[in-house]
Design a protein that fits this description.
The chain has 324 residues and is α/β, with parallel strands linked by helices. Helix content is 52%, strand content 12%. The structure holds NADPH dihydro-nicotinamide-adenine-dinucleotide phosphate and retinal. It is found in: Membrane.
C-alpha cells in the first residue's frame, strides 16, 4: 500500500536506496496489518451488509450449509442453494423462504465438473450473476487408507478440493467484470495440521487452503480488491460428520467440539467483517503455528499427550463397522 505510493516519488533514486525505502515501508505496512488484526480481535468488527447480494452456498442440505443459508437469509441475501441431496436442500430452501428471501435450489453433484458448469450456466440464465460463493460442501471417506475403495478417496478430493477450481472458474469472471464479490472457503483445522487415518480429508483440505490463499493473492496482484476472500478453518463440529472422533478425555473440556450454530455464527462474523482467515476456536492457531515452528518429534509428543494422534480411530472404527 505505502510502497507503490513511495515509488512514484523516487524515480531517479539509486536502486539500493529504493530497496531500503521499500523495506522501511514494508515494515510499516507489516506493523499496520498486525495492529489492524489485533484491533479486529479486540473490538467488535464492522460488518458489511449482504442485502441484495446473490449468495450461492454448496452443501446447503447439510448441517453447516443449512445454518449458513439461514444466517445469510436473515441478513437479506438472495440465495442459490446447491446440494446433491435434493430433499435436504429443498428443506433448507423452505426454511430460508420462511425468513422472507428469494431462494433457488438446485441439485448438483459437485464431484462432477460438468455438473458444476451446467448448473452455473442455469443459475446465470435463471437467476443472475452470483456475487458471493460459500464453498461449504465436504465429505470424508472415514475408512483406513488401505481398506478404502479408491472411488471413495477420489470423491473426497473431487468434492473438497477440485470443485473449488470449477466453482471459481464458473463464477469469478462475472465478479471480476464488476470488481465486486466474495469467495468463502469452508476448509478445516485439518487443512492446517493433521492427524492419522484421514489422509483423503487432510490432503483435500490442505489443497483447499492452498487454493484459497493463491486465489486471494492473485486477486490482490490483479488489483481486484473489490473481490473479498475468507478462509474458515473450524475444529471438530458436533454434528455427526466425525462422530466418535475425540481427544484425551481429561482434556476434552479444554477444547470441546464446536456447536454447529456457534461455528456458523463465528464464520459469519469473519465473512461479514471481510476477514481473510479465521480459525474456530482461536486456540486452533496454536497447533497450526506449532506445526511449522516445532520439530516433527516435538509435535508428535504433544499430539500423543493430548490424544490428537489417534483421535480419529473411534470414528474410523464406527464407519468401518457400519460398512461391514
Ligand atoms: N463437521 C465437522 O466436524 C467439520 C466440518 N468441516 C467442513 O464444513 C463443511 C460442512 O460440513 P458439515 O455441514 O458438517 O457436513 P454435512 O455432511 O452435514 O453436510 C455436507 C453437505 O454436502 C453435501 N454433499 C456431499 N457430497 C456432495 C456432492 N458431491 N455434491 C453436492 N453436495 C454434496 C452432503 O450431502 P449428503 O449428505 O447427501 O452427502 C451434505 O448435504 C465441510 O466442508 C466440512 O469438511 C470443517 C470442520 C469440522
Ligand atoms: C491433532 C491435534 C489435535 C486434535 C485435533 C482434532 C481432533 C481435530 C479434528 C478436526 C476435525 C474433525 C475437522 C473436520 O474438518 C489437538 C488436540 C488440537 C492438539 C494438536 C493436534
Amino acid at each position: 500500500m505505502f510502497c507503490s505510493w513511495a515509488l512514484k516519488f523516487l524515480p531517479a533514486a539509486p536502486a539500493a536506496m529504493v530497496v531500503l525505502v521499500d523495506l522501511l515501508l514494508m515494515l510499516l505496512d507489516l506493523s499496520y496489518s498486525i495492529l489492524c488484526a489485533v484491533l479486529q480481535t479486540l473490538l467488535p468488527p464492522r460488518l458489511k451488509s449482504v442485502e441484495g447480494e446473490l449468495c450461492l452456498i454448496t452443501g446447503a442440505g447439510g448441517a453447516l450449509g443449512r445454518l449458513f443459508a439461514l444466517e445469510f437469509a436473515k441478513e437479506g441475501a438472495q440465495l442459490v442453494l446447491w446440494d446433491c441431496d435434493t430433499a435436504a436442500n429443498e428443506h433448507t430452501a423452505r426454511l430460508a423462504r420462511d425468513l422472507g428471501v428469494k431462494v433457488h435450489a438446485y441439485t448438483v453433484d459437485l464431484s462432477k465438473r460438468e455438473h458444476i458448469y451446467e448448473a452455473a450456466d442455469r443459475v446465470r440464465a435463471e437467476v443472475g450473476d452470483v456475487t458471493m460463493v460459500v464453498n461449504n460442501a465436504g465429505v470424508v471417506a472415514g475408512r483406513r487408507l488401505l481398506d478404502c475403495p479408491d472411488e471413495l478417496l477420489e470423491r473426497t478430493l473431487l468434492v473438497n478440493c477440485h470443485a473449488l477450481f470449477w466453482m471459481t472458474k464458473a463464477f469469478l469472471p462475472q465478479m471480476k467484470a464488476r470488481n465486486h464479490g466474495h469467495i468463502v472457503t469452508i476448509a478445516s483445522a485439518l487443512g492446517l495440521f493433521t492427524t492419522s487415518c484421514v489422509e483423503d480429508y487432510c490432503a483435500s483440505k490442505f489443497g483447499a487452503v492452498g487454493f484459497h490463499e493463491s486465489l486471494a493473492l492473485e486477486l490482490q496482484a490483479e488489483n481486484q480488491g473489490g473481490i473479498k476472500t475468507t478462509l474458515v478453518c473450524p475444529y471438530i463440529v458436533n454434528n455427526g460428520m466425525f462422530a466418535g472422533c475425540e481427544i484425551r478425555k481429561e482434556l476434552r473440556s479444554l477444547i470441546p467440539p464446536l456447536e454447529p450454530l456457534y461455528t456458523v455464527q463465528e464464520s459469519m462474523k469473519a465473512i461479514l467483517g471481510e476477514q481473510q482467515m479465521v480459525c474456530i476456536p482461536r486456540l486452533i492457531y496454536i497447533p497450526f503455528l506449532a506445526r511449522v515452528l516445532l520439530p516433527w518429534e516435538a509435535n508428535l509428543a504433544t499430539y500423543r499427550f493430548m490424544g490428537g494422534d489417534k483421535c480419529m480411530l473411534p470414528f474410523i472404527n464406527r464407519t468401518e463397522t457400519k460398512v461391514t
